[in-house]
Design brief:
The chain is mainly α and 88 residues long. 62% of the residues lie in helices and 7% in strands. The protein has a single domain, classed as Winged helix-like DNA-binding domain superfamily/Winged helix DNA-binding domain (Arc Repressor Mutant, subunit A, Orthogonal Bundle). The radius of gyration is 12 Å and the shape is globular.
Length: 88
Amino acid sequence: MDYEAMSYIMASKPRFRILTELRKGNKFPSELSKLIEIPISHVSATLRELQDKGFVECLTPGRRKKKFFKIKEKGDNVLDDINKETRK
């Protein structure tokens, strides 16, 4: 279990919620903004952070607008670890 990664994700509700939504399927930032009810600017900043840490991947890196994101294996794994720890 990667406790550093778990702590990083759980320290921010938007990080956790964005990963959870991306686990359900690939999405645009505008979709995530509506689903988790936070401004798109916060979603975009959080996605950049998550991408820099290797939790998500942008599938359309050449685009300035309407980028499409997916969760990576590292993101799936940290959500699994969080679920295991919180069910104890």
